[in-house]
Fold Cytochrome c, mono-and diheme variants.
Amino acid sequence: MVKVLRLIVPAAIVAAGIAWVMTAPKTVAEDAFASPEGGEVARGETVFRAAGCGTCHAAPGAEGDDKLVLAGGQSFPSPFGAFTAPNISPDPDHGIGEWSLQDLANALLHGVSPEGVHYFPAFPYTSYTHMGDRDIVDLYAYLQTLPASSAPSQPHEVGFPFNIRRSLGGWKFLFLKDDWVMDGNDLGAELTRGRYLVEALGHCAECHTPRNALGGLDRSRWMAGAPDPSGKGTIPALTPDKLSWSATDIAYYLESGFTPEFDSAGGHMAAVVENTSRLPAEDRAAIAAYVKALPVPVAASTGY
């Protein structure tokens, strides 16, 4: 027994050390965003709209200009618990007013806080990891122009073991990918832009793609529809076997909220349309082109 323990204990220590290293938060290079050049606020607003920042981080029930006060507080249910959007206004105490550009880059690209702690993937950094450096710089510039809020961020309601932040390093190892789902370097300008808007900024797959038992996106059923995380209803598929709209129909829906069947966007999608309606027309056309180019998934959606 002693001999067995002499073998097991060192092996366990080595395994624990490897796990600790593998789950460590990763960050951008220290000089990655050291350029003295400032961002363009106007471009930053476009990134803000495309990424839907205000949709999640405005206070519950906010209307009009109050939607630009990113006080947080909205709750997002999931099979793992309820996640509450934090205050990301420029307030130095309760928001992100003290964040550097590198802090924002680490949050968006790696899901890591300024304190070096993993963020829960309810914050869609699995999509934002594709963001270009210039968009991050411009978004940072725009966020600094928004009103500050002193509302404290509210805690998440996530129980054990899902509340173990370090374990998210293992989750990221499995599911935080830096490759595109719609692959290829010969997509053309419009499809390439559409891919960026859908897979990166718009993070459309976070809702429209089913997840596995660990909450990772099932890429084999990309955009194939999924159960609503609230447990009520389903989020529709966008693949060509389920969505028969033309590219013109899709672009018009993203501008007006009206469907070819004379219905209108509701629920969370109404907020998405509020953002896409403010994008350039060519961006809505690019999103539509991407959706029309989606392949039929290999399996039907079964959800979490």
Remarks:
- The longest helix spans residues 2-22.
